[in-house]
């Protein structure tokens, strides 16, 4: 059996976050000496830090929240494709990629090089890709980028179009070492009832 590979960003107190967003902080809020028996930690973070999923409520007040998302989509077969040096991620960029039977598509762009800092710009997903992916049966799109839209976008066209076609969004993956091919994915969100997004521990293992 192939081993599970972690494709998540490590959650350290200096992890790069969206400019202006809540910094990540883990601390022991009640230590051994104070409690007499245990260390008890506390986490402060944005729901869009590190490797995470978006719920439609992130960009639509009427949209589904994390608890409403279908957990089936976050576990199961996934295809990893490599699109290095792309300016954007559209139908053209995926034209050579075989999507037959692909429900979960993970795209490695390698364009977020310095993980210590939040990127200045990223290749955005073109909104037209949503319909194309949907026609091919894709229900989850994961990327090694902090967003599917340009970082300065306020309209978030890719987020909205992916949602319109029922495609779930997984962001901030670490795919640097991952060869293209077929894998099994597990990247479950937390059961956050009110939330617009959730951190995930994303792991894959090679199929076959
Ligand atoms: N759309 C991005 C997050 C995002 O837009 C954002 C995250 C935290 C603080 C501000 C953000 N966007 C707009 O100012 C994402 O899905 O992770
Ligand atoms: Zn997000
Ligand atoms: Zn997003």
TrEMBL record:
It catalyses: N-formyl-L-kynurenine + H2O = L-kynurenine + formate + H(+). Its cofactor is Zn(2+). The keyword Metal-binding applies. GO terms for molecular function: arylformamidase activity. InterPro entries: KFase/CYL (IPR007325), KFase_sf (IPR037175), Kynurenine_formamidase_bac (IPR017484). Zn(2+) 1 binds at residues 48, 52, 54, 171. It is an enzyme of class 3 (hydrolase). The active site is at 58 (proton donor/acceptor). Substrate binds at residue 18. Pfam families: Cyclase. It comes from the Bacteria. Homodimer. This is Kynurenine formamidase. It comes from Neobacillus sedimentimangrovi.
